[in-house]
Structures
1.
Amino acid sequence: MAALILFGGGGDLAMRMLLPSLYFLDHDGLLPDDLKIIGAARSAESAEAYIAKVHETVKAKAEADEAWDEASWARMKARLDYLAVDATDPESLKGLKAKAGDGETTSFLAVSPSLYGRIVTAMKAAGLAEKNCRIVLEKPVGRDLESFLEIDDAVAQAFDERQVFRIDHYLGKETVQNLIALRFGNTIFEPLWNNLTVDHVQITVGETVGVGDRWPYYDEYGALRDMLQNHMLQLLCLVAMEPPSDLDPDSVRNEKVKVLRSLRPITPEEAERVTVRGQYVAGAVEGQPARAYRDERGQPSDTETFVAIRADIDNWRWAGVPFFMRTGKRLPEKRTEIVIQFKPVPHSIFGHGERGDIYDNRLVIELQPDEDISLSVMNKKPGLDQRMQLQPIKMSLSWGVNGKDAAPPRRRIAYERLLLDALKGDSTLFVRRDEAEQAWKWVDEVADAWSGAGFKPLDYGAGTWGPEAADLLLSRTGRKWNTRD
Ligand code: BG6
């Protein structure tokens, strides 16, 4: 028998993401037959009551995706169990160990990271950190380099690095993996993937949601630590890394860590020029009025809900190519995309474009709301115009267009891929200790520069693309953020 233990099994992450993901995997016949799933949390409820809650949440999600069937649920239900525990107490965890048995055991910590250190110590004492055990850690691990190392050292006392799976759910997104396929499964992009041809790269993660219930957590972290330190730097790594020699976990992660090491530190003197902090004030998002961040709790706060940064990678391939990243809450659209903006033609024989720009190409890797990769290329506007007119057309490389007669596969929750990999012990799509360490180091410098200079976040109206300074970050260099037009 193998076991998957979900610490925080009744919490938001487990109910919204992990348990539905496990249902979908089971539905598709991808879970090992003998896998037991054990929810573990503080609340003193019975296994029946827990399973009833899981049933409700999983059914709603599966029905929405037209993937609900009673037979799959019956299979999943037979796997499920629950135990009320104090996860920091070894005695209490012994009951969990008894339920999990002596087979392979994967423990997913979906609890407050402030408890990670104490939980792993208790796990070790309870026999849940044996050689055939793994641990999955949800982000954020730490709030800065120091606290990350403190937690990670406690983890390292109990587990070898090969047993540790630091999750970044962005790496489980289909389009993110497609980016790896695009770069390393084709010859045509590689010769263009450098500072001779690429003008700059943009990474945007825009969200329409506010912070709402998550205020106490979020106010401690802010956009820099919640999104940029992990998801956005991971995307940057996948765009910028050198080709790994294979898809082995260490081959891929060795390349990613080299990118992180090459990030130019942002000095306090530079911070004002290359970073923007923002916080939303009242406005409207998708036609609905939205309150200011600080009114959601009725408390003043200097936490940023928006960040934009220019990063420079000091290596041979990327010297001189800025990577612009921006992310925020209460922006006009839920949009996640990576834009590889190629240089304009050196001399245009067609004059300039309608908006005065010279012709250029752009590869847009869209993760949300749609999953798509498209290349914009110039072609001739049909007609008899005296002077040849050009227009950009988008060549879509997405499944929807090219999937021939088959229906596109169901859009999977990113955690499906990652849970499956963790259960198999494949850590290619997980973050290694030195990656997280390096990312914190870079982000700490930004945070220190902000606090050192007393940079307060600039206001931006809910429903706008952040403070004006975010546009200036690009326009100062003659560039602009990609728009959907
Ligand atoms: C989480 C952050 O890691 O990612 C949230 O903590 C954010 O603040 C979420 O909303 C975004 O994930 P996705 O997959 O919806 O882009």
Note: Residues 3-138 form a domain with the Rossmann fold fold (CATH 3.40.50.720).
2.
Amino acid sequence: MYYIFFTGTAGSGKTSLVKEFQQYLLDQQLDTAIINLDPAVEKLPYTPDFDVRDYIDAYEVMQKFGLGPNSSLIVSIDLLMSKAVDIKNEISEIEANYVLVDTPGQVELFAYRDTGRILSSLIIGDNKAVNVFLLDSFLAKEARTYVSLLLLSSAIRFRMNLPQINVLSKIDLLNKKELEELNSWSNGEELIDSLGEIDDYSFDLINSLIESLDSPPVPVSSTTDEGLDELYAEIQKILAGGEDYL
Ligand code: GTP
């Protein structure tokens, strides 16, 4: 069993990609399951096989503790840890080749807090896993935002300690020129050129960021399904050493 986590900033397209990617795997007769880890989501476009909302209600937490939406989500996930045994038992009953894990938009859970990592380790157990990090290309088409999103991606890669694939989501929203420019930024020189004048600190930072990328971000769209073949190939490379897992 392989676990594929989908992380990214709020609204970057995680839930949509989980839905489309599940369909992509089903079309190849691969068994799939979905875990929803977002206690605050109201409506999902898929039917989860495990739903964290069965254990915790972020809205109730918000009312009970007088919290705002962001902090109630953080507290909800903390509270969830007290139900770790039940959660583990329910998840261990899932049978599938690939389990897709949809995560909350409050990405700080996975970038800056231990709960995200503890929760993901609990879910993964002894299985193999990969994290797909979504960079919203509509935001990332601005060079400085691209750099900030790569920094966030590195924070998550470091914190989760899983192999990670960066994805440029929503590429259908870009024109050809924007997409070409965005794709060229996996080359440090091109990226630095687009940033205009930068100081030495930024120059060194960007070069080491680009150097640390295992491979360039994969452009995908959940609206047109572009890039799903490439994403699947990257996932296979990491999880099954290029071999199909059936
Ligand atoms: P949170 O859970 O709130 O963080 O959001 P999310 O990351 O799960 O994003 P979601 O899939 O809910 O998508 C957010 C918005 O972007 C929705 O309006 C989607 O319809 C839209 N969207 C997602 N993927 C794509 C895409 O590939 N192309 C376009 N054009 N829109 C997309």
Note: The CA atoms of residues 39 and 53 lie 5 Å apart.
